[in-house]
Amino acid sequence: MGTLREPLDKVVACGLPQALEVMGERWSFLILRAAFNGLCHFEEYLSALGIARNILSNRLSKLVENGILKREPCPEDRRKVEYRLTEKGLDLLPALLALKQWGEKYTLTELSNPVVVDSQDWLPIGPITIRAHDGRELSYRDLRWQDRSRLGQNADEERAKEKEKAEA
Amino acid sequence: MGTLREPLDKVVACGLPQALEVMGERWSFLILRAAFNGLCHFEEYLSALGIARNILSNRLSKLVENGILKREPCPEDRRKVEYRLTEKGLDLLPALLALKQWGEKYTLTELSNPVVVDSQDWLPIGPITIRAHDGRELSYRDLRWQDRSRLGQNADEERAKEKEKAEA
DNA sequence: TAGAATAGTTTCATATAGCAACCTAAAATT
DNA sequence: AATTTTAGGTTGCTATATGAAACTATTCTA
Fold this sequence. Notes:
The structure is a homodimer. In chain A, β4 (130-131) and β5 form a beta hairpin. By secondary structure, chain A is an alpha+beta fold. Chain A contains eight helices and six strands, in the order αααααββααββββα. At the A-B interface, α2, α3, α7, β3 and β4 of A face α1, α2, α3, α6 and β3 of B.
């Protein structure tokens, strides 16, 4: 196919580039992790992460701008500001945990600490997995990239096409 | 390459900084997505992503170095090289999809296309979620960060502590 | 009222990332 | 044999990121 192809992120409508726009910068995910760990003040992030002040300032601003953190004056001490997760920020937890678990599985020699546990039974959570609409666990082998326009079509046609392709 | 750079991984024992060390760079996740989409040749990535040659070269090398892609000469055309996902790379799919879904939910105006579907019924996959060891779906409210040393302890003690805290 | 703490901002220097353009080497095609 | 294709190096330049240190402006505390 000799046709000049447009960049993937312009032809394909995908949330990934957008997510990376916000969260792809160097310290963003580590700040997010710290926020999930309960940190909320500027100086807390500063000493926990070992990040430069101006960079932290810049990142916090961007995270607030993008609605991932909200910035509120601290009621007890009005010099302080609280950076807390919004719903949008909290919704990044699956992505964060998936990354964390991957890192643990492949690149961590020592066991991670602390561990994320279920408050019901205080046992570690399970691995983040891909599931069908009905909850069946799926592997990457079970997945296809389907054009949205044919989402309504019945499955039989698609299966036939798969079969045909496999035989060719 | 992080010689002068402050290491991101000395804070706590967590897989996240390690994961970001490998996947946190600017084009890594987009290359990964392209690989999941079936691209495998240098020039394919180049035109699909609109990335500079040297940067692509650098990123591919790093991804290979880190065991996320494997580099193999193409049997049909031995000028060509195939960059294909390893198991380790395939295992990044939950993280990739979690990010993608988050991006779709919050920052995408138009509907995404193509859609990831289950090959069984050709319906879109469900959202990536957090689950307990037994498969119960959990929200961030159900999670605690527990020190590894007390993982063996029985749950009652922990529940009592929670209650106590809530009453204080 | 005089410090000290908090959350920044500003300045300056360096490091890294990014890109375009050109070059190489090997293999395929003609 | 000459040309084209593919992967990927190198060079030179610019833009952005990073970090340390100094500086502000509030607000709290003694």
